[in-house]
């Protein structure tokens, strides 16, 4: 009996070692489910999948997750996306609050306010170049494409830009012009690494520090500046 147990243990160890060697330098399937997301799906491996367009089914299930979100009790402009706040510059009466999404962030975007969709405008490289590459959120993008969802709200015109690059180049939008939408409603999704920009009147300021992580539909992102 003891000999049988020893043989079984050795067999399990042999399988584990084989799996580990087979998948080097990436995690073995035996331990991957136990790891935090960034270790479970290493960036280098994801970038290799981008080049081949062949993704691990487990990563795709992780990427397409769409958990429910609880709206904050306070009134305010909520974050349209998960990610890091990287800038909040203002120009020509508009403040641009930029959220950078990583490969591990949830990629469904939500409306920051109640409002009516006035326009859903997809555009490619030529339009982006025409706007000016000096925008912080365009400067480092390679072949950017975007969809801009414009809203008429109680605070005035607001817009959400869903921006991606040559690595992904696919944006889904789930709202249309003329539709009345609610604060926190799902409006679209960008596939893989991407950027979301919230445009608000410049009298509104970002309430989050640069580098802070925000959550779509839950984090208050902007408020009117106190006089």
TrEMBL record:
<keyword id="KW-0444">Lipid biosynthesis</keyword>
<keyword id="KW-0443">Lipid metabolism</keyword>
<keyword id="KW-1208">Phospholipid metabolism</keyword>
<dbReference type="InterPro" id="IPR003817">
    <property type="entry name" value="PS_Dcarbxylase"/>
</dbReference>
<keyword id="KW-1003">Cell membrane</keyword>
<dbReference type="GO" id="GO:0008654">
    <property type="term" value="P:phospholipid biosynthetic process"/>
</dbReference>
<dbReference type="Pfam" id="PF02666">
    <property type="entry name" value="PS_Dcarbxylase"/>
</dbReference>
<keyword id="KW-0594">Phospholipid biosynthesis</keyword>
<protein>
    <submittedName>
        <fullName>Phosphatidylserine decarboxylase</fullName>
    </submittedName>
</protein>
<keyword id="KW-0456">Lyase</keyword>
<keyword id="KW-0472">Membrane</keyword>
<dbReference type="InterPro" id="IPR033175">
    <property type="entry name" value="PSD-A"/>
</dbReference>
<keyword id="KW-0670">Pyruvate</keyword>
<keyword id="KW-0865">Zymogen</keyword>
<dbReference type="GO" id="GO:0004609">
    <property type="term" value="F:phosphatidylserine decarboxylase activity"/>
</dbReference>
<keyword id="KW-0210">Decarboxylase</keyword>
């Amino acid at each position: 009996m003891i000999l049988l147990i020893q043989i079984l243990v050795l067999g399990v160890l042999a399988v584990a070692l084989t799996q580990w060697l087979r998948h080097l330098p990436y995690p073995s399937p035996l331990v991957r489910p136990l790891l935090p997301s960034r270790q479970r799906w290493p960036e280098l491996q994801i970038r290799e999948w981008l080049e081949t367009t062949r993704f691990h089914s487990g990563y795709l299930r992780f990427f397409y997750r769409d958990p429910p979100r609880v709206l904050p009790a306070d009134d305010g402009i909520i974050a349209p996306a998960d990610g890091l706040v990287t800038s909040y510059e203002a120009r020509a009466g508009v403040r641009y609050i930029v959220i950078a999404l990583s490969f591990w962030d949830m990629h469904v975007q939500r409306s920051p306010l109640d409002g009516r969709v006035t326009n859903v405008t997809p555009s490619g490289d030529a339009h982006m170049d025409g706007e000016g590459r000096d925008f912080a959120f365009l400067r480092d993008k390679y072949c950017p494409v975007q969809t801009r969802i414009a809203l008429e709200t109680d605070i005035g015109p607001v817009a959400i830009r869903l921006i991606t690059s040559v690595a992904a180049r696919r944006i889904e939008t789930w709202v249309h012009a003329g539709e009345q939408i609610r604060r926190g409603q799902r409006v679209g999704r960008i596939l893989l690494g991407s950027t979301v920009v919230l445009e608000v009147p410049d009298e509104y300021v970002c309430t989050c520090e640069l580098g802070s992580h925000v959550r779509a539909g839950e984090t208050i992102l902007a408020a009117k500046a106190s006089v």
